[in-house]
UniProtKB/TrEMBL annotation, chains A, B:
PANTHER family per UniProt: 3-ISOPROPYLMALATE DEHYDROGENASE
Residues annotated for Mg(2+) binding in this entry: 221, 245, 249
Textual note on the cofactor: Binds 1 Mg(2+) or Mn(2+) ion per subunit.
NCBIfam families, A to Z: leuB
Function: Catalyzes the oxidation of 3-carboxy-2-hydroxy-4-methylpentanoate (3-isopropylmalate) to 3-carboxy-4-methyl-2-oxopentanoate. The product decarboxylates to 4-methyl-2 oxopentanoate.
Protein name: 3-isopropylmalate dehydrogenase
Catalytic activity: (2R,3S)-3-isopropylmalate + NAD(+) = 4-methyl-2-oxopentanoate + CO2 + NADH
EC number annotated for this UniProt entry: 1.1.1.85
Length: 354, 354
């Protein structure tokens, strides 16, 4: 198979971890006799520094032409500390999601047995959990009109949904549910928000087309609680952009660490694969970041964009073996158990490659 | 002390639990020689059934004239299942919050030692946690303009903040932090939302007036994760209406159960006290609800609205003793420990009274 892959390392720990995702792709190409051609592009703070634009035209052009994109992270403390800055790294990520029509963000909560004890949640609560989040990614308050009054003292963001936006991601989520446990939980705040009422009505309509799937509707506050109380109750979770942002970060604690979670953004064209963690500027350059989320993003790319199931499975089983052998990055080390071999980013990357 | 207290039982388990909050107030009046006069009023589904209006004028009038309000919960499955209904129970709660100017919702995450094992989170992660949430309660996407297009296919809610709304709750939160651990974490989504950028700028300004308090800003997705990963890191958490709704329900799992958490809504006038749990129609009338959140709401009322610290302390220590004696409602029972005496709502209420 011949594919063109665009690598966008981005900011913070993005480059450190993406390096290992890319290395794994190269190794897979060799082992399975594929031809993966790589190109690289700028986004976020890195792109602002170089070009003034968080998403340069060149990056977007390369993205459109590629068969899949491996992305790291964007963000920088400078902007977080100064909310008045007009040009911001995250605009690059939001714009590429919109421009590529990446409306469905799949976030599987994949639990490695070996990490059951790395979580702050009790192992018996976690065991058997297998959740697939469908987070809507190109609508909601993320993309609605933003305003700031002239006197600067009033600010707003429009939370808005169109029915077709809800329908298309609902179909994707139901199709996935049909292939899995046939349960779907839609999360909204329909007791307060009009956009959530449209969300709920629409999901109720789509649900009728999938009678084999058991549908449940939860308010987002309740869902945030249930995820910790009893994560096993969930199969597919379908939700809006903002709620999905919050709930999937929360759910990372089920998998032990944010450093273990990958995501796939799909839609009209090229697929986009990234860890769910951010740029983590506090640990950047310290060889502390966990490269497994980037490597797992590569597994998602191989399976979802290229249909290469065997290759994807090999990556997951390799990570499983590395964990079984007791190797950990510091975020998933658990000092209550036998002394782990705690590795830095580089050594963990190398180990998986081997 | 002479006080007029309005009781609004509301819907679902509201009446079952509020009955015990009120009974505890009556007992406190006798023991400490206070005069508490009670009145009752309708809100939510109960009020819609009786008057067509989720917040009848009469209720609002009584509320304005009372010295404090003890509230249960609102909500009903009928409305949850039919998002197209125009008159909804929750409108009553939102309107009374707005009309009474209840802009600050205090949600203490109070951890009883005896319940450390009732949580799905590991005891050593929880031990020592003591968080006080300040959730803004009369602004945000809850109260911004709502629209639905004529063809019904587009719906929106305006997420909007004015600077003064952020300032007044920030002051309250900083004042509380000064009396506690002198740490304040403000939660927003300033990397995406303009209203959050105003939030962050404003909190940064107010922070300067409280140099003894260590201020931190977290994005809401990160905060949702950190709450489970390491809840002990938090002291006062200050956040907007929607984020506070989600994070405090999530944080209920730190305290073992939603059935243990009380909240105080304060602002311009009369204080409003309620459990953070909802109407829970699935367990309504089954003698399963935990009355302790309502009883703890009463403790908050006595302390915050009436300045009766000793009385409030007595309630908390009584609950502590009941728990130490091994009594539990089913939501906080923990089957891995010695066989608890699992009680229904009524028996738990009676026990605390004794
Ligand atoms: C960086 C930020 C804009 C982004 C988001 O909120 O979508 C991130 O948190 C994510 O979840 O991918
Ligand atoms: C019932 C609902 C409107 C309410 C809210 O969202 O504020 C509830 O969840 C709460 O937290 O008090």
């Amino acid at each position: 198979m011949k594919k063109n892959i665009l690598v966008i390392p981005g900011d913070g720990i993005g480059p450190e971890v993406t390096q290992w995702g890319k290395a794994v792709l190269e190794q897979i190409a060799i082992s399975f006799n594929h031809e993966f051609n790589f190109d690289e592009a700028l986004m976020g703070h890195a792109a602002i520094e170089a070009t003034g634009n968080p998403l340069p035209d060149e990056t977007l052009e390369k993205a459109r032409k590629s068969d899949a994109i491996l992305f790291g992270a964007v963000g920088h403390a400078k902007y977080d500390n100064d909310p008045s800055l007009k040009v911001r790294p995250e605009q690059g990520l939001l714009k590429i999601r919109k421009e590529l029509g990446l409306y469905a963000n799949l976030r599987p909560i994949l639990l490695f047995d070996e990490l059951l004890n790395a979580s702050s949640i009790k192992a018996h609560i976690l065991r058997g959990t297998d959740i697939l989040f469908f987070r809507e990614l190109t609508g909601d308050v993320y993309f609605g009109e933003k305003t700031r009054s002239e006197d600067k003292n009033t600010a707003s963001d429009l939370m808005i949904y169109h029915k077709y936006e809800i329908e298309r991601i609902a179909h994707k989520a139901y199709e996935a549910a049909m292939q899995r446990g046939r349960k779907l939980c839609s999360v909204d705040k329909a007791n307060v928000l009009e956009s959530s009422r449209l969300w709920r009505e629409t999901v109720q309509e789509i649900a009728k087309q999938y009678p084999e799937v058991e549908t449940q509707h939860l308010f987002v506050d309740n869902a945030a609680m249930q995820l910790i109380k009893d994560p096993k109750q969930f199969d597919v979770v379908l939700t809006a952009n903002l709620f999905g942002d919050i709930l999937t970060d929360e759910a990372s604690q089920i998998a032990g660490s944010m450093g273990m979670l990958a995501s796939a953004s799909i839609g009209d064209g090229t697929g986009f694969f990234e860890p769910i963690h951010g740029s983590a500027h506090d640990i950047t350059g310290k060889d502390l970041a966990n490269p497994l989320a980037s490597i797992l993003s590569v597994a998602l790319m191989l399976e979802i964009s290229f249909g290469l199931k065997e290759e994807a499975q090999l990556i997951i089983s390799t990570i499983d073996r590395v964990l079984k052998d007791g190797y950990r990055t510091s975020d998933i080390a658990d000092d209550s158990t036998s002394p782990y071999k705690v590795l830095g980013t580089q050594d963990m990357g190398k180990l998986v490659l081997k």
